[in-house]
Structures are given as structure tokens and as C-alpha cells.
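Structure in, sequence out. Go:
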């Protein structure tokens, strides 16, 4: 086992409460590199790489607000596996040491994102579970890493988590009745505003690791600055593909272990229980619609 900044006590906290926080996992220089890359992409100084989605906030897409800058338009950059600068986030050795501590050595990456919460938009994300979006199981072999790129507080829309909720299992999700809701921002049913939650306030470089069934979300950015973070999920190559849905297929980059540098591919179907994601979604798999537009479309 590689040395990790996650101690035994922190690992115990992760399995009991569904999350753990590692301070200063990335230094200020790396945080600035990722912020600068975000700016270069959204300002058109660097071309978006193959497969990358640059996604506008719903309020911008629908004309509810007129942003002053390009950076104020964007909700997130998603799927940056082919961007060598941003992808260095997931190959950062201290990050992979922490991932190995929680899910094992042989892992691939999925759902890479640089998340932007600009001022003057709603920008909320209801309490949800990330496993809703993933075809892999078991859940205990998947973990998220989410890193602050600037000071993140309750005031500018930090993550909040519901400790211990990863023990409930996957819940059915719905579309909250909000005036402005980004596509695919589903919320878990029966989880109201009065649900007790912990607000994860962070300094640049701090990283929270959380279980894919942990209920989490974020609030509005009430400041005039930006709230930016970079994140990825990691899954063990021991995982199996459990969705029954057809036509969803891709390869995933293996970043550590005996096949590092190679690809994890959807295994051939095997007998046993399978999962239909539509049983948990309000209208089928999450997908962009007219309320949230990719700059690459």
C-alpha cells in the first residue's frame, strides 16, 4: 500500500460518515494552473479538447441574465481526459495515494469536471447521489475527489453533505420545482430543506473525498466572486457494469495499477442482478437539453 495522507482515523471517518477531508492536497501553484486553464478554454485562447463539454448555466442559456464576461456564462467544463493540463489533476500522485487508500490500487477515472459557480446565477445543486449517474458497482469501489481552487465557503456555495447518508442505498430522484434548474441536476426524493447537513468549507488545494451514495449538494453563490473547484471520480478495475440500458458504452483511462496507461472497457454481460437506471430517474438517463447548452454542439 502506497503512503497516503489519509490516516486510519480519516479512513474510519470516511466509512462511517461517507466523506473525509484532506487539507493542502494540491499547492497554490497547481490551483492557479487549473484556474488559468479554465480561463484560457472559456475565453477561446485554448481550443476545447476532443470529448470536452463547455456547458453554460441555464440562466444564461435561457437569457434570464446577461453575463459580463465569458467566465460568467459557464457552469462547468466536463470530460477533460484529453486535456493534458487539467488531466494532471487526476494523475497527481498524492491524489492517487488517497484514492488507493479508499478503493484500491487499480483504478480508472470517470466524470472529470471543473465546476464554476459564477455570481448572479442561481447555481444551486439539490441534494443528490452520484451513483445515480454511474453504471458501475459495487459502490464501495467508487470514490469522488473534489478540490477547491479558491476559498470556498457557505456564502459562495460550498458543498454540503448529509453525514452517514451513504448507508441508505440509492434513492429515486426527481426534478426540483425551481425556476432555474440546470439539466441533469436531479434531487433525491423525500430529502427536504430541513435535512441536517454539514457545510464543507475549504481553502485552495483542500480536497474532500466522498462515497458515491453520499447525499450532497451546493447552494447559491451570494458573492460577486467565483466559486471554482475541480473534481473527478475514480473506480476500481474490479467493478462490473450493472446497467441494463443499451447504447451507453465508452472506454475509461486507467491511471494506476498494473494496466496504468491502458483502458478499462465495458465487460461482456454476465448473469446476475442488473439495474435499470430509469427506475431512479424522473425521465431516463441524465442528459443535456435545451436548458443547458454545450459550447461544442
Amino acid at each position: 500500500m502506497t503512503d497516503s495522507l489519509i490516516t486510519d482515523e480519516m479512513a474510519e471517518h470516511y466509512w462511517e460518515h461517507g466523506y473525509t477531508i484532506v487539507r493542502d492536497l494540491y499547492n497554490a501553484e497547481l490551483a492557479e494552473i487549473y484556474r488559468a486553464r479554465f480561463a484560457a478554454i472559456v475565453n477561446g485562447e485554448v481550443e476545447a479538447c476532443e470529448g470536452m463539454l463547455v456547458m453554460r448555466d441555464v440562466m444564461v442559456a435561457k437569457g434570464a441574465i446577461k453575463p459580463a464576461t465569458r467566465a460568467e456564462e459557464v457552469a462547468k467544463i466536463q470530460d477533460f481526459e484529453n486535456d493534458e493540463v487539467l488531466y494532471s489533476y487526476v494523475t497527481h500522485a498524492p491524489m492517487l495515494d488517497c484514492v488507493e487508500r479508499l478503493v484500491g490500487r487499480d483504478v480508472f477515472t470517470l466524470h472529470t469536471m471543473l465546476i464554476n459557480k459564477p455570481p448572479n446565477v442561481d447555481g444551486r445543486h439539490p441534494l443528490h447521489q452520484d451513483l445515480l449517474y454511474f453504471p458501475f458497482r459495487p459502490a464501495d469501489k467508487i470514490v469522488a475527489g473534489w478540490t477547491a481552487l479558491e476559498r470556498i465557503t457557505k456564502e459562495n456555495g460550498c458543498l454540503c453533505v448529509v453525514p452517514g447518508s451513504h448507508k441508505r442505498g440509492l434513492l429515486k430522484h426527481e426534478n426540483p420545482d425551481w425556476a432555474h434548474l440546470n439539466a441533469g441536476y436531479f434531487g433525491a426524493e423525500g430529502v427536504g430543506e430541513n435535512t441536517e447537513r454539514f457545510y464543507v468549507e475549504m481553502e485552495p488545494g483542500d480536497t474532500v473525498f466522498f462515497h458515491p451514495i453520499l447525499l450532497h449538494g451546493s447552494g447559491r453563490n451570494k458573492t460577486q466572486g467565483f466559486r471554482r473547484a475541480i473534481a473527478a471520480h475514480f473506480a476500481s478495475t474490479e467493478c462490473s457494469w450493472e446497467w441494463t440500458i443499451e447504447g451507453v458504452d465508452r472506454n475509461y483511462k486507467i491511471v494506476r495499477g498494473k494496466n496504468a496507461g491502458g483502458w478499462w472497457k465495458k465487460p461482456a454481460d454476465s448473469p446476475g442482478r442488473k439495474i435499470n437506471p430509469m427506475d431512479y430517474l424522473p425521465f431516463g438517463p441524465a442528459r443535456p437539453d435545451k436548458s443547458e447548452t454545450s459550447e461544442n454542439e
